Amino acid sequence: CTEVAFAHLEQPIRINGHISPIEIECVDRNRKRQTFIRYLDTYQIDLSELCKRIRQGASVSAVINETDETRRTGRIVMAQGNQISFVIRVLKDDYGVPGKFIKET
Q: pTM to 2 decimals?
């Protein structure tokens, strides 16, 4: 059993087995870039609040996407452009997620 405490939670998270890191990926689609953020449900991060922070802080569109891979990765946050550095800063500063739980791909 693994127990991890974060700043945005009152109680620590307890998970049996391996904790998947938050995966942040920037993909080119139709000559435009999109940033995908996966595995946020594991860390009990409020996705609508994270989208709001991305929209206000980076001045881009950010939405919650429920796709076929939702069962495996949880819900996905999609943001316009390459927002990897901004999202990492928000996760570390506002949510207290350590760098070892954040993976860039």
A: 0.86
